[in-house]
Design goal:
The complex is a heterodimer of chains A (236) and B (413). Chain A contains 8 helices and 10 strands. With 236 residues, chain A is α/β, with parallel strands linked by helices. A 6-stranded mixed sheet of chain A has the order 6-7-8-3-9-10, sandwiched between helices. Helix content of chain B is 56%, strand content 18%. In chain B, strand 9 and strand 10 form a beta hairpin. Chain B starts with a helix and ends with a helix. Classes of the chains: A alpha/beta (236), B alpha+beta (413).
């Protein structure tokens, strides 16, 4: 575990709701190494979503420390976090979250726009990312001209285009039928095989089965952390 | 995000909702239309008044000695109206006296004029301005001869019964025939046509080519004024300083000749283009004072409309903002995006406003006698105001967008 890309120490996140203090995360310690394939599971209310937001640098912990690829992100301000999200994290959402008016290519280019990449380079990288997910023929289509699976592939291409240190997927198959889900999970498997660190947040055991390590949260704490035999994971 | 990206993005948002964008920019459009149209017309009037009106009616670097003002605008009291007709008329002798004593080099011409009916072979032109004058008159007026010739000083000396016609008048009487050598009746007296003046165009839609010019000694002279009385004495110098000097000399000479004591008002009038223009300048000054207020009102209204449209856009696009933030947009990226979008919207309105303003000015020039000339600065001001209004209107919506929490924004339906 010397190659930790994510290191959480005593991460706590509290909310005030109607004067009541709610503890979504109650001091989580967790390390994820480079090129791990981790599923984070747990029933609703377990702190799964908060965990996802904290890992994705969309939210900052109330207490505790978080290192992402050597940066201590728990002490960063808004703009620095925006930069980390841009460079270090590739998001894949349940609802795809593509810009409806933009083409697949323009959607994939978006993180590069905020990274200040020149337009020619952006186009080149976005095209190659779309080809990687098998959508080389559909670059000029808008999201409403694509199937659910194709939309999620566009979202994956967008997540990968800036070569993030982690791919963070939140219920990536939640809006897909089972055969499309399989197809998307195969894409994750291939990316992992090529060295990508993947973190899945899901409540579906079938989906979590694709991962090599399953972390289960309960009441804002790590309840279990199981490593699956490499052979079993590879077969999935 | 580079500016041109932001502008391209803004245009795609505007295009996505053309009708809404149009209506939201309509306030700015109206304000700028108004600005361009009014400035064009006022500017056109300015050019017109200085170049044409003053030049055509009085002449460049020229003043006229008259008993009373000819061109009047603005405040004239009843007392002035009563006093003017009682004034002693200017005479040929006054003119001779000034010619003999004026030290400033100048061209001069005496003139008497009246409206008369002109006839030729059953054709008739009523209310034609007949000028009886000196041979120098053509040079002072800068009238070129299109056909034939002007009359000579000799013809003035002997009182030749010759006449030079304005272009419209010649066309009206003779159509396509050659008028030179024909004898026409001027106020009932026969005169031979020796020349036609080149076209002078129109002033406020009134032709400047309906006139006839005869020597001041010609037979028709008797119908214009009593013997030796003239209507004006034209004095033209080479430049403005000389004209000022000549005006001072003429004033001194006339006061001496009429025996006016110091403190007594002049009982004669020196008419200059400047004098005639000063009244116009008062009118245009008021227009230019009122204009910013009127433009400001429509721009403020236009700005408020744009601000509200942008606030709606931020609410509608909350999820887009969330996505952008998740992918690495900083606050200032989001801020810039919405300010640029608002400014682009407003400038688009301003651009349409400039186009409609120019069209309006063109329409005024085409369909009314009023002139219009585009002032380049008004276009620059129009664009600048468009940008300014858009940016100011965009600040609040943009700030709101930039402060959205990405988690909440992503969950927004």
């Amino acid at each position: 575990m010397t190659q930790a890309i994510i290191r959480l120490e005593g991460i706590t996140r509290e909310y005030l709701m109607g004067g009541e203090r709610i503890r979504a995360l109650a001091g989580v310690d967790l390390e994820i190494a480079r090129n791990e394939y981790v599923a984070i599971m747990g029933p609703s209310g377990s702190g799964k979503s908060t965990m996802m937001n904290v890992l994705g640098c969309l939210d900052t912990p109330t207490a505790g420390r978080y290192w992402l690829n050597g940066h201590e992100v728990s002490r960063m301000g808004d703009d620095a976090l925006a930069r980390i999200r841009n460079r270090e994290i590739g998001f894949v959402f349940q609802t795809f979250n593509l810009l409806p008016r933009a083409t697949a290519l323009a959607n994939v280019e978006l993180p590069l726009v905020y990274a200040g990449v020149s337009s020619r380079e952006r186009r080149r990288r976005a095209e190659s990312a779309l080809e990687r997910v098998g959508l080389g023929e559909r670059m000029d289509h808008r999201p409403n001209e694509l199937s659910g699976g194709q939309r999620q592939r566009v979202a994956i291409a967008r997540a990968l285009v800036n070569e993030p240190s982690i791919l963070l997927a939140d219920e990536p198959t939640g809006n897909l039928d089972s055969s499309t889900s399989e197809e998307i999970m195969r894409v994750f498997g291939q990316l992992h095989a090529h060295g990508q660190t993947v973190v899945l947040v899901t409540h579906e055991p079938d989906i979590a089965d694709h991962a090599h390590r399953v972390v289960v949260l309960r009441d804002g704490l790590v309840d279990s952390d199981r490593r699956r035999p490499a052979a079993a994971a590879g077969a999935a | 995000m580079p500016l041109y990206e932001a502008i391209r993005l803004a245009f795609s948002s505007i295009r996505a909702q053309k009708l809404k964008s149009f209506f939201s920019a309509v306030g700015v459009m109206i304000g700028v239309t108004f600005l361009i149209a009014v400035v064009s017309v006022v500017q056109g009037m300015n050019v017109y008044m200085t170049d044409k009106f003053a030049g055509a009616l009085i002449g460049v670097n020229t003043f006229q000695l008259r008993s009373r003002p000819n061109i009047t605008m603005g405040n004239i009291t009843d007392e002035m109206w009563r006093e003017w007709p009682r004034r002693q008329r200017i005479t040929v002798d006054d003119a001779e006296y000034i010619r003999a004593n004026l030290t400033v080099p100048a061209r001069t011409a005496i003139e008497g004029f009246d409206q008369m009916t002109i006839r030729w072979e059953g054709r008739e032109a009523a209310q034609i301005q007949v000028h009886t004058t000196d041979a120098e008159y053509f040079r002072i007026k800068k009238w070129d001869i299109a056909e034939g010739r002007a009359f000579s000083p000799q013809e003035v000396r002997i009182g030749a019964d010759v006449v030079v016609l304005g272009n419209d008048l010649a066309r009206r009487l003779f159509e396509n025939r050659d008028p030179i050598g024909e004898t026409i009746s001027v106020g009932g007296l026969p005169h031979r046509v020796i020349g036609v003046v080149a076209p002078q165009g129109t002033l406020f839609g009134i032709s400047l080519d309906k006139f006839a010019v005869t020597p001041i000694t010609s037979p028709v002279r008797r119908l214009v004024n009593r013997p030796r009385v003239i209507d004006d004495f034209h004095i033209q110098t080479d430049n403005v300083p000389l004209m000022r000097a000549a005006m001072e000399e003429v004033t001194a000479l006339m006061r001496a000749r009429r025996g006016l004591r110091p403190g007594e008002e002049n009982n004669f009038h020196l008419e200059t283009a400047e004098g005639a223009l000063s009244e116009w300048e008062k009118v245009s000054g008021i227009l230019f004072l009122a204009l910013p207020g009127l433009v400001a009102i429509s721009l403020v209204v236009g700005g408020i409309v744009i601000m509200n449209i942008m606030l709606m856009a931020v609410a509608e696009r909350t999820r887009e903002i969330g996505i952008r933030k998740a992918l690495g947009a900083k606050r200032r990226d989001i801020m810039a995006q919405f300010i640029v979008e608002s400014a682009t919207l407003s400038v688009t309105g301003a651009a349409i406003g400039i186009a409609t303003g120019l069209l309006l000015a063109l329409a005024v020039r085409t369909f009314t006698p009023l002139p219009a000339a585009v002032a380049p600065w008004s276009i620059v001001v129009g664009v600048a105001l468009g940008i300014l209004v858009g940016m100011v209107a965009g600040i609040t919506p943009a700030r709101q967008a930039s402060r959205l929490d990405p988690i909440a924004a992503l969950r927004h339906e």
